[in-house]
């Protein structure tokens, strides 16, 4: 089986071209390959295949084998992959995901390499029943985090997958390793949740660390960056365009409150190609 490892802001996945190959047990394969000691090492695997509704389809499996609806960094890598691997020469590409069809705009340099990718991420879901989140249990979680002086407030939002934003004083000193897994599996979130530790530096700059559902702490998360920006705009008065600094790099997010649309922009890189024996 041929594969390609890619990363965007340090969010790394193993990509498999399913036009030429088939994967019978993607959940098991993701657990095997994602192991950073006995496998290739990644946040999960992404299968690229055909679609009846878009130019391509994308299926995401986390490092623990669970399936994810959407990944903003992962889908940007898909855009670079399909263009530079010769699967398309379109610079506006649609991708069918479990969170709906997303449109990518590819910026191509003079050497025909994709330098940046913008993704129309759609509109954030704020209704508790659609995130989904249990408001009573969320209030208990928020009260506990406030009493322990871990977070000032919490804000749930879905960007095709559930997120819970924890507004903290210092994102890079937050107890992500202990609070992340607890909050991910808290009874407030019937489908578990991605947990973002967000520091508002100023109205145009956020610092964020992410505990990703099914993968643990990751260097970046595209939907998490978008969710953080939305929460910062609605809860903290941030501007509509913000830079989000994560351990793996910086992403640009634009949230148009008028239309409700969120756009994510950033780069993507190949790491290596390989063969699974």
Overall mean pLDDT: 96
Q: Which ranges are low-confidence, i.e. pLDDT below 50, for 5 or more consecutive residues? A: none
Q: Radius of gyration in whole Å, from Cα? A: 18 Å
Strand share of the residues? Answer: 35-45%
- In terms of structural class, how would the helical and strand content be classed? alpha+beta
List strands and helices in order, with pairings.
Layout: E1 2-8, E2 11-17, H1 26-34, E3 44-49, E4 56-62, E5 67-68, H2 72-84, E6 92-97, E7 100-108, E8 114-122, H3 135-147, E9 153-158, E10 162-167, H4 176-184, E11 194-202, E12 205-212, E13 216-218, H5 222-236, E14 241-246, E15 249-255, E16 262-266, E17 269-275
Explain what the structure shows:
The chain has 277 residues and is α+β, with helices and mostly antiparallel strands. It has helices spanning 26-34, 72-84, 135-147, 176-184, 222-236; strands spanning 2-8, 11-17, 44-49, 56-62, 67-68, 92-97, 100-108, 114-122, 153-158, 162-167, 194-202, 205-212, 216-218, 241-246, 249-255, 262-266, 269-275. The protein has a 17-stranded mixed sheet that branches. The radius of gyration is 18 Å and the shape is globular.
């Amino acid at each position: 089986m041929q594969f390609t490892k890619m990363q965007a802001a340090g969010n790394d996945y193993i990509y498999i071209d399913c036009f030429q190959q088939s994967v019978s047990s993607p959940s098991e394969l993701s657990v095997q390959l994602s192991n950073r000691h006995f496998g290739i090492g990644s946040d999960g695997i992404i299968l690229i295949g055909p679609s009846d509704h878009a130019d391509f389809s994308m299926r995401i499996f986390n490092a623990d084998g669970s399936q994810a609806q959407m990944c903003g960094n992962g889908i940007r890598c898909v855009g670079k992959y399909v263009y530079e691997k010769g699967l398309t020469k379109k610079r506006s590409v649609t991708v069918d995901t479990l969170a709906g069809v997303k449109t990518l705009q590819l910026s191509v340099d003079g050497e025909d390499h994709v330098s940046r990718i913008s993704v129309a991420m759609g509109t954030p879901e704020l209704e508790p029943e659609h995130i989904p989140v249990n408001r009573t249990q969320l209030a208990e979680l928020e009260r506990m985090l406030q009493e322990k002086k871990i977070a000032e407030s919490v804000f749930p939002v879905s960007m095709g997958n559930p997120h819970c934003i924890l507004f903290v004083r210092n994102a890079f000193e937050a107890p992500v390793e202990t609070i992340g897994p607890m909050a991910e599996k808290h009874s407030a979130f019937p489908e578990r949740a991605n947990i973002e530790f967000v520091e508002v530096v100023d109205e145009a700059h956020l610092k964020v660390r992410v505990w990703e559902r099914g993968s643990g702490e990751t260097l970046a998360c595209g939907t998490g960056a978008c969710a953080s920006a939305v929460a910062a705009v609605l809860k903290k008065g941030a501007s509509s365009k913000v830079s989000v600094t994560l351990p793996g790099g910086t992403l640009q997010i634009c949230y148009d409150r008028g239309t409700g649309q969120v756009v994510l922009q950033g780069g993507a890189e190949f790491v290596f190609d390989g063969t699974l024996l």
